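Throughout our pipeline, every protein is held as a single compact record rather than as scattered files. Such a record has a labelled line for the sequence and another for the backbone structure tokens. The remainder of this section carries one protein's record, kept here as part of the documentation:
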Amino acid sequence: MQPWGPAINKEAIKSDADFMKLALAQARQAAEAGEVPVGAVLVRQGQVLATGRNAPIDTLDPTAHAEMRALRAAAHALGNYRLDECELFVTLEPCAMCSGAMLHARLKRVVFGAPDPKTGAAGSVIDLFANSRLNHQTQVQGGVLAEECGAVLQGFFKDRRDRQRQESLAAHPLRDDALRTPDSAFAAVPNYPWAPNYISDLPALAGLRMHYLDEGPRGGMTWLCLHGNPAWSYLYRKMIPVFLTAGHRVVAPDLVGFGKSDKPKKDSFHSFILHRQILLEFVERLELNNIVLVVQDWGGLLGLTLPMAAPERYKGLLVMNTTLATGDMPLPPGFLAWREMCSKNPEFDVARLLARGNPQMSAEECAAYNAPFPDRGHRAALRAFPALVPEFEDSPGAEVSRQARDFWREQWQGRTFMAVGQQDPVLGEPVMRGLQTLIRACGEPLLLPQAGHFVQEHGEEIAERAMSHFR
């Protein structure tokens, strides 16, 4: 931030583009200093009075945006906090804070480069400058050198992601017997804005990297959301915002072999007992309490066996289209048909599967379910899981599932909310009615006649009804 100096020929600067190029130079200086690259220049009657670049990290000042620093420097240069007849050029659409300061300074005109769809207050999110009730009106023009301004921002964030990726690799080295879906595969995934978290030092993981979401405040209710096969934590994208808006915590892991977690190359890696142990250790490591267990499909086959190991941690159950495979009861006919389909078509299209049962989903949303599995090598879990469902009394996982059945029937002290997608041919209403009889004090389920197996695709209604139930 500085008043205008003699180093640049002011006579050569005449157009908006010329002034924006000066702002871009400031943005690049911000990037070199590790700040988000936004730059600004403030002009009066064709002469540059001051420049500014982003510096909240360097100055430990949340108000040290490029525009604010330019405004302060210009006010000092003029000896007046009113900046009548002044114009401000900034590389990114100003936020609400900066826009308010510009209006208070009574700028004549504001010109910005790239729009900001997340925080822009000059039309993208809100438009403070269009409010006619304010006692001063400032002209606004956007889009000047927008591509150049946007490119500087995109390059900065790409470099930062690359550094974070390298740091993650160093912290969680990839095992020789596993694959890791590249981050680029998830770049086009819509409506999944949450930051990734990784863990690799659980004993059962043995160095594999496991991904999970962990959003919201600690100390209150925690919604532990477990997905099934062939899904990942993306399945909960419509439910998570409801829980977060209520001020609760949401934890949503990707099982090993799915989502952003590492993917062992061999089908034989996967077992019921191993995945259950990973989840038990995960809950302990994160010290989760006041849990509402949210399960569907394999999330229930595994998840319903967890609370009996530490019942004091669990306060509620939200259960959707799943079952307990105890080995002493026949598996549902719909599941047997699914297992046969998987064995005959191991390379089935996950996106097509989602689209067939969820016509309301966009093509981009369906494609997001394919993102973790770019080739056959990444699909070991998809091939292995159908055969892992305990079918006989001595099947791995059957005994612990029978113990879980006794727990839910006789010892469960929490509250339960059940939601059923009635179009599910695999684990639909008949299966869920049977599960209902096994869960102590489980009330009448929420029936969703339009929903299929992936019932979370209608998750807003389920989450809102569950919130009301547990409240």
About this structure: Residues 1-12 have pLDDT under 50 and may be disordered. The first strand starts at residue 2 and ends at 3.
